[in-house]
Write a structure and sequence with these properties.
The chain contains 15 helices and four strands. The protein is an all-alpha fold. A hairpin with a 2-residue loop joins strand 1 and strand 2.
């Protein structure tokens, strides 16, 4: 009987965690398609090539900004399970749009839009729509995952620990995605030889897999969690923005996701720039990643190890039951600032890769500090909080524009330094909870 009870307690947590793995995997697949699509769709995009390329991430995170609060409304109206099922449906629609983009790009490569000296194929704009739908899916699912995991009663754990466990599994997805794109989707061929038709079969396969996950989730019991959302018809007395530590937490997550995504999405573009200018990136003395005839690419290795740092860091920090979220956030932001400065000065991208280890626990720390004491306001707060993930769109696009203006990616990482210092302010001052902001 004890074993059955334990399984009944752990199963919903495992299901939600697995779905969060899918979100991490497909989010990074979207980012890692930036460089290949630059060589396929955007080869004739002129001097704004980097700006157009980063629109892929911009539209993905636009889905967070516009539809994050939609997810929280659905949680209050329909509960956690029905909301997560709707999120999975959006994921399927987004993948089908990716597939349509590939088919149009393959069958009608000459149907395009002229903008200045740039020629943009129509398939690229369809892909941007797919990115928006995928971002919407990720936003809706995260609105469920964050409060569910933080509030779910798992004996012997703290909210920040449970979040770190779930985000560690999410990081398995983000870590494996770069090599999935390089080795599976594009069969390990050189990036200059990539063709858009190679996306068709992998997207059909992924759509089938998500469809199976949807049907399985629909059949499984996911219990609701008390005191994390307003009751049906209940009117909340206060504005969610009246909670100072929450409002500043939203800003902190905006800057956190901004720099987190910018590094993961743009580091490979910086690597291409260095390699083209005669500054090869080496890994234990190697300048290539050719194994068994497959060119896996140093650029994929940079992204993989960056996201791999999240996996390692989150796995380690899940055991930090006696170290407060405030202390963890203070330490990691200071060290990340130092690494970003050293990377710019030395032009060594491996220091940027190392920041992944430090970024790993920041989401959990900021989220747990921001929702502290909110109780019935938690689900509404989660929707607003998720909208702040739009920072990933803003900073990725701004950095791409700066790279075009400056003619180099080198000093654009100043944005990372600014973001880290603002998060340090939140850790030390902004996260302090006033007594009037604790909801009974």
């Amino acid at each position: 009987m004890e074993s059955t009870s334990q399984k009944a307690t752990i199963l919903p947590f495992l299901i939600v965690t697995f779905i969060y793995f899918l979100v991490g995997f497909l989010t990074t697949v979207n980012e890692q398609l930036q460089a290949p699509l630059q060589f396929t769709f955007l080869e004739n995009s002129g001097r704004l090539k980097n700006t157009f390329t980063t629109l892929i991430s911009f539209f993905f995170f636009l889905g967070y900004l516009i539809n994050g609060t939609l997810g929280s409304k659905w949680v209050n109206a329909f509960g956690y399970k029905k909301t997560i099922l709707r999120g999975l449906l959006f994921m399927i629609f987004g993948l089908c749009t990716y597939l349509l983009s590939s088919l149009v790009g393959y069958k009608y490569p000459n149907v395009s839009l002229q903008y200045g000296d740039a020629t943009i194929p129509s398939g690229f704009f369809i892909f941007l729509l797919g990115s928006y739908l995928m971002g919407t899916s990720a936003a809706i699912i995260q609105v469920v995952v964050n409060p569910y995991v933080a509030s779910y009663h798992l004996p012997g754990t703290q909210p920040v620990q449970r979040l770190n466990i779930t985000t560690a599994v999410n990081s398995v997805g983000t870590t494996s995605a770069p090599f999935f794109v390089t080795a599976i989707i594009f069969s390990g061929i050189s990036i200059e030889q990539i063709q858009v038709r190679q996306l068709i079969i992998p997207f059909i396969f992924i759509i089938g897999c998500i469809g199976i996950v949807f049907l399985m989730t629909k059949r499984v019991h996911l219990p609701d969690i008390a005191h994390t959302r307003a009751a049906v018809g209940e009117k909340l007395e206060r504005s969610i923005w009246s909670f100072r530590h929450f409002a500043l937490g939203v800003l902190a997550i905006f800057f956190y996701v901004g720099t987190e995504v910018a590094i993961g999405a743009n580091i490979n573009l910086h690597a291409f720039e260095l390699m083209r200018s005669g500054h090869p990136i080496t890994f234990f003395g190697r300048t290539d990643m050719v194994f068994g005839g497959l060119d896996l690419g140093i650029h994929a290795l940079l992204s993989t190890l960056y996201w791999g740092g999240f996996l390692v860091g989150r796995s380690i920090s899940s055991f930090f039951s006696n170290i407060s979220a405030r202390t963890q956030l203070t330490t990691t932001t200071v060290l990340a600032t130092i690494l970003a400065l050293v990377s710019m000065i030395t032009q060594n991208l491996w220091f940027l890769v190392a920041i992944g280890l430090l970024h790993s626990s920041m989401w959990s720390c900021i989220y747990s500090l921001a929702i502290k004491g909110l109780n019935k306001y938690t689900s509404k707060a989660s929707g607003v909080f998720i909208s702040a993930v739009f920072g990933g769109a803003v900073f990725t696009l701004v950095q791409g524009g700066l790279a075009d203006i400056l003619g180099s990616w080198r000093w654009t990482w100043t944005l990372t330094v600014v973001c880290e210092l603002l998060m340090l302010y939140y850790a030390r001052i902004g996260s302090r909870v006033k007594e009037k902001d604790i909801v009974n």
